[in-house]
Amino acid sequence: MPHIKTSIVFAERDGTKLKISGAEILLRSLKAEGVDTIFGYPGGAVIDIFDTLVREFSEDFKFILVRHEQAAVHAADGYARATGRPGICLVTSGPGGTNTVTGLATAYMDSIPVIVFTGQVPTPLIGNDAFQEADIVGITRPCTKHNYLVAQTEDLASTIKEAFFIATTGRPGPILVDLPKDVVQNKAQFEYPDKIEVPTYKPNVKAHLPSVKRAAELIRQAERPVIYAGGGVITSGAHKELYKFASMLNFPVTSTLMGLGCFPATHPLFLGMLGMHGTFRANMAIDNADLLLAIGARFDDRVTGRVEEFARDAKIIHIDIDPTSIQKNIVVDVPIVCDAHDGLSRLIEELEAKGRSPKADEKLKEWHSKLTVWRNQQRQRFDRTTEIIKPQFVVEKLYELTKGNAIITTEVGQNQMWAAQYYLFDNPRTFLSSGGLGAMGYGFPAAIGAQVAYPDKIVIDIAGDGSIQMNIQELATVVQYKLPVKIAILNNGYLGMVRQWQERFYDQVYAHTDITVAPDFVKLAEAYGAVGLRATKSSEVENVIKESLKTKGPVIIDFVVDREEGVYPMVPAGAPLKDMILV
Amino acid sequence: MENRKVISALVENKPGVLARVAGMFSGRSFNIDSLSVAPTMNPEFSRMTIVTHGNEAIFEQIIKQLRKLINISKVQDLTRGDYVDRELVLIKVKAASIKRAEALRIVEIFRARIVDVAQDNLTIEVTGSQGKIEAILELLSSLGILEVIRTGTVAIPRGRKGLKAGDSGD
Ligand SMILES: Cc1ncc(C[n+]2csc(CCOP(=O)(O)OP(=O)(O)O)c2C)c(N)n1
């Protein structure tokens, strides 16, 4: 272990334990957890931690100083989604903590392991409305998987151990650890536990075998099956098992927004995304299926449309690690509480031991022809002949020119849906998007997190002109750390997704969605010391993308796109999936 | 009450646990009809008795969401089996001299107790199941109830089935 002060090593050898400060305990604990990167922002309540970080641990951690704490959490979240390892944040008390709330809520909704350390006023002052005091544990209780106020330095190491354990196991989620200033300053002996037991927390990862057998029987007989895969497949690292399972059975796969990349989008069995902006084929498949296999997905209302009519002819098998997800929105026939990895592995074993009925396989062929008919009937499409840039064209070109190898983050709105529809994700952890919360401002900081984790990969934030302005200050961060993030703004001068709803459902009354008053994004990039490029015609798109990819540093590309292009198909909120509005 | 459910939860005796439970109920729009909490024989744990109502699907969610909270050790739906539930109620009634006999008679029938006597009112303490409490309140209301303070229900399964950490069952 590098970088442990020799005095401590000696003390440990003597058998007498030296006491070290809470700040040092924190940082040594993070090291013990294998943390290499911290995203954060300083302040009075955490000044000791920052001081120790710089004086004694500067070789151990890469520290990314963001320009707003919300961005620190989104960046840690992007880091976690891209790597599968927990993302770490360190911010100050009061406003530092309250600025993390949107980031925590985002990570909570999408089950992302993020651990936020907040400073807090010294314990004797808690409750006194002290300067920069906020009850951050109270504030974040409903948007964290769990949170802690550390009452004394002696509890720090074990609390951190528990925080990592809970954040990364079961259904992962964000944890907040609140650190009063005296707890950070006081000294205690340090011993980092190898293992921790939390008697009141025992997530069930292993499938109940009788349920697996029941599911396998349904699978053997299914004539019109669909696999509906969600983010849980990615979280549990079950994409290979999903691939094996679907290809051995020849079952079609659709995925949620969160699931994109869990099954190769270029594979013939992939139907595309389902739900509100899903493909015609995927939604028709759900509507006509006789067996639905939901894996690591939670029947979100953006997926189901009118819930009473969702997959109404299908028997439903639901594999999910979180018992509260099961039977919450929809009544299922075979619930299996376990992680997607174990569930799929057990199902594969069952079906390898005894295969499908030949009669069902005959019918499956007919089902595939039906799916092909639906695909040909309604492909995702846009007008490719226009001089004015179609936003879908930009995404398609990004896909082509990066050969599908980029990590794509998105903002929220139309940009997010076009990214999901037109970039084909073949690998997990390459599409990072605020799915459950839908937080504008997520994409750019998340791209920072992904780029820090993978300095050599192409990381692109597909953005809207509205969303990008929610965390635009992070341009300073990417310039400071020479992070070559590319921001592709699909600039329509509108809060486009809201405008689309107003066009469709609110008589074209565009209430406060015109945002043409905006900075010149090219000049803005330059003002921060980044590169700005612009395309206003379809013919320019390819060249600016190529140029941006050649550029070593961060680039904003301002794509001035068709202002009124809409995202289609679209299932109106609360309508059944089959009632899609096509182009 | 229709679909009355009594839940017994064994929770860690740590700061914020009550807030976690209460916040989960309010955040998800679940009803709490009553909630009582106090330490168990093992001071590291407290017992919560929560009375709620709702349809089966909602109730299933309530139980699962409670189990999902990290500091909760055990959650049991007592209404599924045989259980004893009790509530303690303090009732202040008007009792001008002519009504006093009537009040005393009701107290006797319900094995209640008079715990405070004033010039024109009496305070009655009564313990019992939901049904008994409802009944005495109804009778006393003819005398004029000034105030009622209820503890909320506490409950325990009948027979050997316990609720301690480590006990089998759910
Ligand atoms: C923080 C936040 N505020 C408000 C919304 C509601 N909202 C959803 S999409 C959208 C418009 C986004 O506009 P823009 O970023 O320009 O993207 P476009 O839809 O035009 O691609 C809004 C305001 C949101 N999702 N997040």
Helix content of chain B: 25-40%
Subunit organisation of the chains: heterodimer
| Percent of sequence in beta strands of chain B | 35-45%
Q: C-alpha Rg of chain B, in Å?
A: 19 Å
**Mean pLDDT metric of chain B:** 91
How many DSSP E strands of chain B? 9
The CATH class of the largest domain in chain B turns out to be Alpha Beta
Number of domain units of chain A: 3
Strand order of the largest sheet of chain A: 3-2-4-5-7-6
Here the CATH topology of the largest domain in chain B equals Alpha-Beta Plaits
Bound molecules: thiamine diphosphate
Quick description:
The complex is a heterodimer of chains A (583) and B (170). By secondary structure, chain A is of the alpha/beta class.
Can you characterise this structure?
The complex is a heterodimer of chains A (about 575) and B (about 170). Chain A is α/β, with parallel strands linked by helices. Chain A folds into 3 domains: about 5-195, 3-Layer(aba) Sandwich (Rossmann fold), CATH 3.40.50.970; about 210-375, Rossmann fold, CATH 3.40.50; about 390-560, Rossmann fold. A 6-stranded parallel sheet of chain A has the order 3-2-4-5-7-6, sandwiched between helices. Chain A has a 6-stranded parallel sheet with strand order 11-10-9-12-13-14, sandwiched between helices. In chain A, helix 4 packs parallel to helix 6, helix 17 crosses helix 18 (about 415-420) and helix 17 (about 390-400) runs parallel beside helix 23 (about 540-550). Chain B is an alpha+beta fold. Chain B has 2 domains: about 5-80, 2-Layer Sandwich (Alpha-Beta Plaits); about 85-150, ACT-like. Chain A, domain 2 (Alpha-Beta Plaits), CATH 3.30.70. Helices cover about 30% and strands about 40% of the residues of chain B. In chain B, the strands form 2 sheets. In chain B, strands 5, 6, 7, 8 and 9 form a 5-stranded antiparallel sheet that branches. In chain B, strand 2 (about 35-40) and strand 3 (about 45-55) form a beta hairpin. The relative contact order of chain B is 0.21. The model of chain B has no long low-confidence stretch (mean pLDDT about 90). Classes of the chains: A alpha/beta (about 575), B alpha+beta (about 170). The interface of A and B includes residues 149 and 166 of A. Bound molecules: thiamine diphosphate. Thiamine diphosphate binds near residues 411 and 465 of chain A.
